[in-house]
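In this supplementary section we document a worked example of the pipeline. Step one takes a protein sequence of length 199 as its only input; no multiple sequence alignment statistics are reported here. Step two produces a three-dimensional model, which step three serialises into structure tokens for compact storage. The input and output of this example are shown verbatim.
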Amino acid sequence: MKINLMWFAAAGVALSLNFSGCASRGKPAEGAARPPATSVPRPGKAAAPAVAGKSTHPLFIIERSMNANVVHYDAQLTDGGKLDPKSPVIVYWIMLAEDGRRTGLNWLERKKAYGFKIKPDTSGEGYELTLSAAKNRKFLIKKDGDKVYAEGFINGRPAILQKMYIKSRKKLVGQKVEQIELLGMDPKTGEACSEKILP
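The serialised model returned by step three reads:
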């Protein structure tokens, strides 16, 4: 069962950055939350199509400490292999805590917690994506040959975003976000990078 996520939107507005550094060989930075061991999207790995005649490629996922359900963000391509100008990015749940089905986001999740705004990049080569819950972060959705990825900055350096991990705990009313961690890799060296964002 999906939880009420207004807390996530409120936390996103009031986030301050606390850099945790980049760690090599895929290890989280010291003191960082340890995400569950699930597969991380890799650029170019195809996913099941959302619309007939179109293909999708994974960009990144959001995992949470509350349960195993995962939010997926995929790039959507036209049958010609270009980023779909009408809907270049799609988002959906994989309900791993239940029966593993794929389902869409509800209105509140789209508007506050896991939604996003997207517009063409000024270079005309991709799309600029801003997550509703982290409006101070922008990611460029790019297609380079067969690879499609979300590029931004993690801990002040260019990185391909692969995963966000949200650590939270239950309160009497709703949840309290304790930490958000961005995980990705350096596009040139493949080195793993992480950054903690604390409310």
